[in-house]
Amino acid sequence: SSRVVEIQSQMSERAVELLGLPEDRPCLLLDVGCGSGLSGDYISDEGHYWIGMDISPAMLDVAVEREVEGDLLLADVGHGIPFRPGMFDGCISISAVQWLCNADKKSHSPPKRLYRFFSTLYTALARGSRAVLQLYPENSEQLELITAQAMRAGFTGGMVVDYPNSAKAKKFFLCLFVGTSGTLPKGLGTECAEGEEVHQAKFTNERTRFRNAKGKSVKKSRDWILEKKERRRRQGKEVRADTKYTGRKRRPRF
């Protein structure tokens, strides 16, 4: 339907904008879950080149019929990104990455598939580039699973949420940096009435330092407390502001 096409192209435009590409030269981008090539059309219109990967032969057939300008590869990104190191100047993905959270086969482990995807994507991207993945998470656990595997693979960055206060227009963009810790772009529509920023899930640029073997922060550590507070904020609960004293040991009184 034309409405779907319109939303797809808006999200493609926003994803490419969040990539912050250099304006003086054409770039080579990877489009993960490219489908029939709608996002690719936008990349081509902007004067860049692209290679699209998708798991659906039917969708890629449509892309071929539409004579898209990008090169197409039939592949499951859960098996990894099969390109040489540093090949891409950026990666976008529209409404695709959440599918890696589904275990379709007995042998499928979502964390392993996500890690395989992110670690090989990290390698295929040039240093200093970005990946911007728009996704429809089912719940906050899924968001945390996806983000944790991205950070494990070496990315920094985090979630940019556009129009967080709108049920219809709310969009999640996982904005990831390769080899440099950039500043996370601001989500659209995040200014509240008083001009206050909405608190979004922030992920630090420090590669998760205080993680134990299971990948969770050490219980009662500052990181653990901050994560717990962040989760509670996301659930809309009243939480005290973070300060330099958060998570500090109190001195014994006497």
UniProtKB/TrEMBL annotation:
Q: Give the keywords, sorted.
A: Cytoplasm, Methyltransferase, Nucleus, S-adenosyl-L-methionine, Transferase
Kindly state a single biological-process term from the GO annotations of this entry.
rRNA (guanine-N7)-methylation
Keyword Iron-sulfur applies:
no
Methyltransferase type domain residues: 30-106
Q: What is an example of a GO molecular function annotated in this UniProt entry?
A: rRNA (guanine) methyltransferase activity
Tell me where it resides. Answer: Cytoplasm; Nucleus
Record region (Disordered): 211-254
Query: Which named protein is this?
Result: 18S rRNA (guanine-N(7))-methyltransferase
Q: Which residues cross the membrane?
A: none
Primary location: cytoplasm
- What quaternary structure, including any partners, is listed in this protein's UniProt entry? Heterodimer with TRMT112; this heterodimerization is necessary for the metabolic stability and activity of the catalytic subunit BUD23. Interacts with GRIP1.
UniProt biased composition (Basic and acidic residues): 220-229, 236-245
Domain 18S rRNA (guanine(1575)-N(7))-methyltransferase Bud23 C-terminal: where? 176-251
Catalytic activity entry:
a guanosine in 18S rRNA + S-adenosyl-L-methionine = an N(7)-methylguanosine in 18S rRNA + S-adenosyl-L-homocysteine
Q: Name one Pfam family in it.
A: WBS_methylT
Family of this protein: Belongs to the class I-like SAM-binding methyltransferase superfamily. BUD23/WBSCR22 family.
An example GO CC term for this entry is: cytoplasm
Annotated InterPro entries: Bud23-like (IPR039769), Bud23_C (IPR022238), Methyltransf_11 (IPR013216), SAM-dependent_MTases_sf (IPR029063)
Q: What does this protein do?
A: S-adenosyl-L-methionine-dependent methyltransferase that specifically methylates the N(7) position of a guanine in 18S rRNA. Requires the methyltransferase adapter protein TRM112 for full rRNA methyltransferase activity. Involved in the pre-rRNA processing steps leading to small-subunit rRNA production independently of its RNA-modifying catalytic activity. Important for biogenesis end export of the 40S ribosomal subunit independent on its methyltransferase activity. Locus-specific steroid receptor coactivator.
Native species: Sula dactylatra
